[in-house]
Design brief:
The structure is a single chain. With 214 residues, the protein is an all-alpha fold. 73% of the residues lie in helices and 0% in strands. It has a domain at 59-207: Tetracycline Repressor, domain 2 (Orthogonal Bundle), CATH 1.10.357.10. It has 10 helices and no strands. The longest helix is centred in the first third of the chain and has 25 residues, at 53-77. It is elongated.
Length: 214
Amino acid sequence: MDKVRPDDRTARARIRDAAVVCFARDGFSAPLRVIAKEAGVSVPLITHHYGTKDALREVCDEWILDRFLEMKLMAIQRPSSVKETLADTASASVLTVYMVRSFLDATSSARSFFDRFVEQLRRIMDSARQAGIVAPSADEEERLRLMATQNLGSLLVEFVLNPPDDPATFVDQVYTGRCLAAWMELYSQPLFNQSPAIETYVQSIKEKRGIVDS
């Protein structure tokens, strides 16, 4: 029989990891006592390390966004890692649902999270462009915001319409089950064929923005 490996994380790290799981599973209203139980610590120890739940959430936000950046950059640098990421349902589900829940809580935290998400996405797109994976944009800032709102927004709608029993169910059925393949097709294959209607849209947008063709 295998010996149980001791948890060598610090108490602070265990609390953060437990909070991420609880926030993803139960939402940001999850009380400290639930987080303490998940981490195997006392509530006073949480306040000792983090002070308030808002401060703890701030740390969790940063951790989630760092993992998102790390995962995407790894996929660019080592494409074979995509299979590993998709196979790691536990980690992917917590990360995805945490990000979705960040926008169900309509507070200043949601705006801050989104702004930081866009900055991480910027680093990802810069890396992908340098690797020749994506084409440059005529307006990179607007493309970044559109991609961020489209990706998070579509998941948010699905989450509201079909509330999952747990994060893993949501990711398996909605994210990897349906959305991911559709997104890859949308981003990798042309959606529109050349037509007078499309040309008129493009020209009208250019005129509205004061862009003159050379």
